[in-house]
Design a protein that fits this description.
The chain has a domain of 62 residues: Arc Repressor Mutant, subunit A (Orthogonal Bundle), CATH 1.10.10.10. With 119 residues, it is mainly alpha-helical. Strands 1-3-2 form a 3-stranded antiparallel β-sheet. Helix 1 crosses helix 2 and helix 1 packs across helix 3.
């Protein structure tokens, strides 16, 4: 499944929804006006877009997520690996390590994670 990459505006609205859901669409409009300085039309336009892309839904004037923030981020990460590293986490890590050095603490944390998944 290809996951939709939200724009900056869509991400701002998504964060409000994930923080407050479930919430009435009218309440979302008020919150977006308060926190983001958006007009009603802007909020509904952005909401429509993120609903069309299967991340949220607005049913009966109640806005809820169809996937959690964590699930969205995980799917984006998996898609990135698929598109750029043939789905290979080792290839990604190797490319990452060519540009950045890990601290001893980070290496230890990775070893613990790997050991947990061995079992």
């Amino acid at each position: 499944m290809v996951i939709y990459n939200m724009t900056e505006a869509e991400t701002l609205l998504a964060e409000l929804i994930w923080e407050q859901e479930p919430m009435g669409s009218g309440d979302l409009v008020k919150l977006a006006a308060q926190r983001l300085g958006w007009k009603k039309s802007t909020t509904y336009t952005v909401l429509r877009k993120i609903c069309e892309n299967g991340i949220f839904q607005n049913k009966g004037a109640v806005v809820t997520s169809k996937m959690s923030r964590e699930e969205y981020i995980n799917r984006k990460g998996e898609q990135y690996l698929d598109e750029n590293y043939n789905g290979s986490l080792p290839n990604f890590v190797a490319a990452f390590l060519k540009r950045k050095k890990l601290s001893k603490k980070q290496i230890e944390e990775l070893v613990v994670l790997i050991d947990e998944y061995k079992e």
